[in-house]
Amino acid sequence: MPAKNDPMQSEPWQPIPQEAFDWYDEYAHGVIDRRTYLARLATLGLGLSSILPALTPNYALAEQVSFNDPEIKAQYVKFDSPKGHGEGRGYLVFPAELKGNAPVVLVIHENRGLNPYIEDVARRLAKSGFIAFAPDALYPLGGYPGNDDEGRAMQRTLDRAKIEQDFIAAARFLKGHERSNGKLGAVGFCFGGYTVNMLAAVMPGELNAGVPFYGTPAAEELRSTIKGPLMIQLAELDKRVNESWPEYEADLKANQVEYTMYMYPGCNHGFHNDSTGRYDEANAELTWERTLAFFKQHLVEK
What we know:
This protein has helices at residues 18-28, 34-42, 48-55, 116-127, 148-157, 160-175, 191-202, 239-242, 245-254, 281-299; strands at 9-11, 14-15, 72-81, 86-95, 102-108, 131-135, 180-189, 209-213, 230-235, 259-264. With 302 residues, it is α/β, with parallel strands linked by helices. Strand 7 (180-189), helix 7 and strand 8 (209-213) form a beta-alpha-beta unit.
């Protein structure tokens, strides 16, 4: 695995071609199968043993906040989801010295379940004073299996509409938590970015701030209800997601939605995930600074 500050290289002298990242994105989102993905990588002439580790998550690198950090308290809790899978489960993290109530932020994973990177994002939010809750869409199947490939396969077997209802239920559970100040934010990545956009459309009076990272928009027929505010984080090299942005932006403007979009130059889809070679440290830190400032602006009671 390359060093975290040099994510674009499988070896210091051997840069990874952009095609490899593009093919990984197609594979991770079901556009091509694993056999096709590996066959394409083989055409690069770099050797799979050198290139695969740079594209495959290494979650030992993703822990910025330890699960036993004394400044946080974490637990797994269940919530009711009558329109979804009946019951959901997620990772709930509090600031350890929380006095009174605090703003709450829903953290929404990619298309593979609640992996260690997303749990760490929840801990980062708690370290910054928020109550964070990261549900696991794979809970009906036993939860994240510890492997992203298997997690993706599991998530594809679930009813998409029920998954969305589970996250709606999770958002309402969190907003109504006894320690919530009543202000709800949501941040999500990839599938989670889409889900933030979806929540902004289906619960506009309840979501107080949304930050979708490289997520596609909600269905066109839902967008007229979005109120925002939204902070939309996109990666310049993410062709698949970026194709949807002009139409989405036109809808946001037409409906006078409060939004800001940042396009991060030279970045791939997933650049905030510090467990893979797509990670861009400087831009990931910038996006996170902006995310925290945005939540503090809209969720912290003045």
